[in-house]
Specification:
With 463 residues, this protein is of the alpha+beta class. It folds into two domains: 6-388, Creatine Kinase, Chain A, domain 2, CATH 3.30.590; 398-455, no CATH class. The chain contains 15 helices and 18 strands. A hairpin with a 3-residue loop joins strand 16 (416-418) and strand 17 (422-425). Helix 4 runs antiparallel to helix 6 (218-236) and helix 14 (399-411) runs parallel beside helix 15.
């Protein structure tokens, strides 16, 4: 598959405090955030005009799922638009609390663990060809996901009973328990195999990757999804010979690599070889470079391979030179500077605060955004592109139809129901359009449905 559909689902962490003391529970704050959503959508689970889905997930986590994207740039813009949309909800809720005389600040974090070591996810979705043999995923894709922490990890201070406090590349590594499973919370797998294609099931399946960290850095998001897309293209192309990288113990390797910041230790492969994370990534990147020379892949995927090589070479020379592109390295640099300044250990509360504030989505407080404001972060989209993505769906996928339908239905004050594949007008006719092709952004049936939304002029113009 050359053209591919991508999506990212992000669960946010929330807290509310006044002078360092927690005043309201996450559940209370999350419901406060969604007051505005429920007011117009009559639900805490809605689809927006930019084609995305916004909802309140289990555990009081606000969740934003991007619209379907077939461009990596669109995906990054949509992902960042989710932060912007959530910040608008925070601002509204903050004003409501102030009006009610409640003092304190709402904090919205784009991270993956809280102070009680509960984990919440950042899930990637890839539309792939329908095939039932998942062995190539275990041999190639899962080892790729486990080792891509080198550039995709968000970084975390890990404190466990009986263990010294350590710094890890990945926030999710300690919370994964299987390679492949249909479960998501009971026994978190690297790849969730539940078959929900949200498309024609005879042609496609949706690969649901739940091992990834939430990235603040736009470059890291672009690279982790772009490289994954190329690896999947190689797996789908059965004429491409790929080495078997299947790991003896995937979960042990995931955790070991997370703590092996400079890729010095090897992990055992089923074929008897021992390789470092860098060696596995380097080998896969080399094969991807050969692959794109003879394949007509989209330009953004070709760019992802070139950037992949750039990052691996920079990591080999000087990992800290990637602080402008890799979250875990940027955070580690901040931590090191604080340790040098105040001679404090990793267990110091000041370090824990840095670990948390790096993910604060408030541009005035968040350490990532403060670095970005100083020109220390390599970006791939502009602020204007993010603003546009908050209101407009990608124009080249099914999301364009969904976003236009939601916009028109709200404009004409019509009762409607929307999900990933259905658009429905809730009236006596119950008109419904089924959109099984996620790549299709034009549909005659949709145009007729759109016309049916418009009320007769005798009913008056929209407000």
């Amino acid at each position: 598959m050359q053209r591919r559909i991508y999506g990212i689902e992000t669960e946010f962490g929330v807290t509310f405090s006044f002078r360092g003391q927690r005043r309201l529970s996450p559940d209370e704050i999350s419901r406060m955030l969604f007051r505005r959503v429920v007011a117009w959508g009559r639900s805490s689970n809605v689809f927006l005009e930019n084609g995305s889905r916004l909802y309140l997930d289990v555990g009081s986590h606000p969740e934003y799922a991007t619209a379907e994207c077939d461009s990596l740039i669109d995906l990054v813009a949509q992902d960042k638009a989710g932060e912007a949309i959530m910040r608008e909800l925070v601002d509204f809720a903050q004003s409501q609390l102030a009006a009610e005389g409640v003092q304190g600040d709402i904090f919205l974090f784009k991270n993956n663990t809280d102070s009680a070591n509960n984990s919440y996810g950042s899930h990637e979705n890839y539309c792939i060809e329908r095939f039932e043999d998942l062995s190539r995923l275990e041999q190639v894709f899962i080892p790729f996901l486990i080792t891509r922490q080198l550039f995709a990890g968000a970084g975390k201070i890990v404190s466990a009973v009986g263990q010294p406090v350590r710094y890890a590349m990945s926030q999710r590594a300690e919370h994964m328990w299987e390679s492949l499973s249909s479960a998501t919370t009971r026994s978190r797998p690297i790849i969730n195999t539940r078959d929900e294609p949200h498309a024609d099931p005879e042609l496609y399946r949706r690969l649901h990757v739940i091992v990834g960290d939430s990235n603040m850095n736009e470059f890291a998001t672009f690279l982790k999804v772009g490289t994954a897309a190329v690896v999947l293209a190689m797996i789908e192309d059965h004429t491409t010979v790929l080495r078997d990288y299947q790991l003896v113990s995937p979960m042990a390797a995931l955790r070991s690599i997370s703590y092996d910041l400079w890729s010095e230790r090897t992990v055992a492969l089923v074929n008897g070889r021992d390789m470092t994370a860098l060696e596995i990534q380097d080998d896969l990147c080399e094969r991807a470079e050969q692959f794109i020379r003879t394949r007509d892949l989209p330009a953004d995927q070709m760019l992802a391979v070139r950037l992949w090589r750039e990052v691996l070479d920079a990591y080999r020379r000087d990992p800290m030179s990637l602080a402008d592109r890799v979250d875990w390295i940027a955070k580690y640099q901040l931590i090191q500077r604080e340790q040098e300044r105040s001679s404090c250990p990793l267990s110091d509360p000041k370090i824990a605060l840095i670990d948390l504030l790096y993910h604060d989505t408030n541009p005035a407080r968040g350490l990532h955004y403060r670095r970005q404001a100083r020109g220390l972060v390599r970006r791939v989209v502009t602020d204007a592109m993010i603003v546009d993505a908050t209101a407009t769906a990608p124009t080249t996928t099914r999301a364009h139809l969904r976003g236009a339908f939601v916009r028109e239905a709200k404009k004409w004050h019509r009762d409607f129901t929307v999900d990933w594949v259905h658009l429905k007008v809730n009236d006596e006719m119950q008109r419904t359009v089924l959109l099984k092709d996620p790549f299709k952004s034009v549909d005659d049936r949709f145009e007729r449905l759109l016309l049916s939304l418009r009320r007769d002029t005798s009913e008056g113009l929209p407000e």
